[in-house]
Amino acid sequence: MTEVPDLTELLADSPTNWGKWGPEDEVGSLNYLTAEQVLRGVSLVKRGELFTLQRLIGDPKGDPVWPGRSPATKEMVWDESDWDEGGEGPQFPGGLHYADDKLEAFLQGSTQYDALGHVWYGGQIWNGYDARTTVGGLEKASVEPIAQRGVAGRAVLLDLARWRGVEALGPREAFNHEDLQACAAAQGVELRPRDILILRTNHLELFFRDEEAFYGDFGEPGLVYSPELVQWFADMEIPNLVTDTIANEVTYDPESGAALVLHNALMRNLGVAFTEICDVEKLAADCAADGVYEFFYVAAPLKIHGASGSPVNPVVIK
Ligand code: UVW
């Protein structure tokens, strides 16, 4: 059996954007989304129609999560039963009753933005910060600066499943930047520098159909690492990669066997923001119906101090 190379070795010559936006930068390629890019996105709003891309938290059909994480659990703290005879509901003048509940959740356990400091190798995270800055909470490149900044611009949906003529891509099905370009051409949309890319595989359909099969043969479809693909992302100045899978890329690189190579080549090295576990089904159906695959995208994760990620409900406006 061939040995899996260390990411330090595999990505030794991979481009980085470290230092490009100064030694204190924590939002990476989102810097590409200048006011001009925001207005470029706004100019695509034609019908005033909104699409929200977050998956339901606490879905009765289940919440897909990365193996080893557990879905969020929501618990009622107060509800009407607490004011029943002998109940402990707090008493307020005037007879106020109310519902309160709480959520225990992995911050990467639902539709989410990853912080740029979420993954690393070789002891350094985005921009060269020491990986020890993650101990006890991310001091650098947490999700907080992304949340403070917000994300908006022109986005393009690339419907890989429809383009390949299937309902959903299967485990480990790979595609690359040339496929993205071919898919865009088939959809009649131009990919431009600084576009936010939204990729549809519909792979999570398998989770909802057969959860045991989904985890039994876990290996997501998605973009696959190559030096050319990474260079294409760098040249195109892609700020944000948004997908409907749990981890935005083929889980294990079929060539080297290494796990989540693009998390490192794109997020850690180029500073590309990752948005994962999105539900793009309604948006994709609408794009197929009207033939318009470009639109305004806006999102802001929650402002959580020192967090490695945060839930988000991105909004697309056509
Ligand atoms: C891991 O980091 C394992 O995955 P994700 O980016 O989906 O949170």
UniProtKB/TrEMBL annotation:
E.C. number: 3.5.-.-
Molecular function in Gene Ontology: hydrolase activity
Organism: Gordonia phosphorivorans
Keyword tRNA-binding: no
Entry keyword annotation includes S-adenosyl-L-methionine: no
Keywords: Hydrolase
Full protein name: Cyclase family protein
Pfam families: Cyclase
